[in-house]
Predict the structure.
Amino acid sequence: MDVEVHRDPVTGARRRVSRTVRGTREEAEIALARLKVADHERRLPTSGTRVRSVEAAFELYLGAVEAGVVELAPKTLVTSRSAATTMCATILPDGHRFGDVRLGSMSWQEIEQCFAAMKAAGKGADWVRRCATVLSRALELARKRGLIDANPCRDAARPRSTRVKPFSPTVDEMRTLLAVARDRDPELGDMAVLLAATGMRKGELQALIWRDIDLNKSEVHIAAAISDGGRGVGLVRKATKRSDWRDVPLTTSAIEALERQARRREQLVGVRPEPDEYVFPSEVDEMRPMRPERLSRRWVAVRGSSKVTLLHLRHFAATTMLDAGESYRTVATILGNSETTLHLHYDGRTDVGKRRAIGTLELG
């Protein structure tokens, strides 16, 4: 199929674009119509391109991210690179690498074959779904650049992920664990208190600076998180996961933990912390955050035989508030989640609303 399109805007030269269609005459006519629409919307490339394969499409997408054309968090970029490498190396049933599949002839069936081959190789459903998201974004960019007429990943069925109820410690378990943590590592114990008392994410806690703390209002302003961009990038202070801010009230125990940390920093450096210093900084520089792996290692050493992770402290905050009968909307606002996400991932152990509703069915 060959069609003349708009002239090159720079040289004025006439241009023709061709596509190979394997199928019926009707399918060729549909492809021709899509090509004309792409030309009308100025989505066809204005100059030669080497983006002919799936691997090249991934390279185009990752290059756009690195150039700032597409915005991704540093940690998400690391994951996207890994996903692209995994998918490109996957061998399809016909013996070809998925990365070598030509964009112009790729179908949703080949994409599903790639998903199946990844699962057969031992990749989990959640990882395959994450890879599928990266592939879809790369192909969507290729479509916008006029390299393909449609995104076949939209028609490919992704593996279904399995949801499990998140573990959440009880109030008594938390009190015991926090007492042990404060005894073994006082600073880390205070960090755990803040996580459990606010439900903030680990990266958000690392990003806190003293300017974010208002002890007069008993409130913390959460607007940033620390992300590890990997080799060559390092730690980056970025917007929160939803690129939003929220003000969270502080409990008495959280205020006491912050006051102890302020005194701890003053004893260490001889002066009160500056507003732009991190609340829980690196051991060597108050203006640098604590590294995520350092924080995780300290927690593992402190918790002993307990299975509670730092993420479980967020689960504790969500579940305990829901147990108390607070609305999903209120808890979602405190945690920085959407209400839909909260329904998907968290549920009260007793869920006051459900028990009240079931109580109306009592027949005895």
